[in-house]
Design brief:
The protein is α/β, with parallel strands linked by helices and 304 residues long. Helix content is 46%, strand content 15%. Bound molecules: ligand 8Z2. Ligand 8Z2 binds next to α10 and α11. Belongs to the enoyl-CoA hydratase/isomerase family.
Length: 304
Amino acid sequence: MAAVPTLARRIARSGVRPLCRWPLAWGRAARQPPGLPLAPCRAFSNNKILVELDESSGVAMMKFKSPPVNSLSLDFLTEFCISLEKLENDRACRGVIFASAVPRIFSSGLDITEMSGKSMEHYAEFWRAVQEMWLRLYGSNMVTIAAVNGSSPAGGCLVALSCDYRIMVENPKFSIGLNEAQLGIVAPFWFKDTFVNVVGHRIAERSLQLGSLYPAPEALKFGLVDELVPEEKLQEKAMAVMAQWLALPDHARQLTKSMMRKAVLDRLVAHREEDVQNFVSFISKESIQKSLRMYMEMLKKKKS
Ligand SMILES: CCCCCCCCC/C=C/C(=O)SCCNC(=O)CCNC(=O)[C@H](O)C(C)(C)COP(=O)(O)OP(=O)(O)OC[C@H]1O[C@@H](n2cnc3c(N)ncnc32)[C@H](O)[C@@H]1OP(=O)(O)O
């Protein structure tokens, strides 16, 4: 197989704009005593992701801005990993809230066009980036909260499941779940493990086999999300939950998180290359390619 660019090389090439000082855009006014100078807020953005770090609280907001549906393309995944790594290495940052800047969609999951009609090398590179995103997010030392302000199927649901806490907008039109089976594909073992760790084996087994997508109120009932709030309260609620989690000493929380997640993370790390090869041989099968093409056509027809 031809050499593929490593994530490090992609990061070097990506041209993330340098850190710059920005006026604060969210959440501070209520906490800042009048008359005091604002503590610095640092922001950085690349094409598909916007990050603002409020140094006074140690909380960053990461917003997905890849219209029309925030699909997790190779570029998106690369930018996501770069942004998360920057925050992870920044001592001023202790927690991250993930939300979408695209109305009604949190993320539509893996970009299907990256898995269809491409070379084996491309599939391998794409899958390594998906693995990387999950390893970094699920294994993050920071407190991670998903503020799910729209629909979140498949890989979008994985992003939310990989966080420490999920708050979703109470709109029943927004749905969430691992619907891979509906596309004729299979969620890999580490998607499944992450799902089981949130909702338990029985619900995960049934939901994965049926490829179920759940409207927000149903998702709440079995703990796929932790809370529902009206859209206008989402940010405030996410900040309040974050403050609660950050009230604990970092080291105790981090060691506990690592204890709970280590076995699942280690399993992928130990079988990473095998998982890439499984993905490549599965996704390049003509029958699977046909299912994906049909699914994309179905999405287009739904519009007309
Ligand atoms: C052994 C181990 C083996 C391992 C085996 C392999 C494991 C793989 C695991 C896979 C994980 C995944 O995440 S697979 C991805 C699953 N994702 C989904 O099923 C979501 C599909 N999308 C939707 O349901 C909807 O688009 C939704 C997100 C709700 C938004 O609906 P809307 O009406 O607002 O918008 P639409 O008109 O549908 O979409 C707008 C445009 O975006 C496109 N689009 C939508 N979702 C897209 C997507 N995920 N990737 C690319 N493009 C997408 C549509 O085709 C449209 O394109 P134009 O017509 O050109 O404008």
